[in-house]
Design brief:
single chain, 76 residues, mainly alpha, 4 helices
């Protein structure tokens, strides 16, 4: 049981900073106008269910930032 708890704790410690770092990198790329990098970083986060990444990816599709404007994809 102790091994299981240690493993779960380790996974939680290592998983969270990667997502946060990728999101911050994506946000910075978007703000700098590097839409291709932002898109590459936001997509996997959005698929993982990160709400802010989903919102920003939708915004990019709505405004045609690095992708063709597509309101259907923006809503999705």
């Amino acid at each position: 049981m102790r091994t299981l708890l240690t493993a779960i704790t380790a996974l939680m410690l290592f998983a969270t900073p990667v997502v946060a770092g990728d999101f911050e990198d994506a946000k910075a790329a978007h703000e700098a106008g590097d839409y291709q990098k932002a898109l590459r970083l936001f997509k996997p986060l959005a698929k993982q269910g990160v709400p802010d990444a989903q919102h920003n990816l939708g915004w990019m599709y709505h405004n045609g930032q690095g992708v063709p404007e597509d309101d259907a994809k923006a809503v999705h």
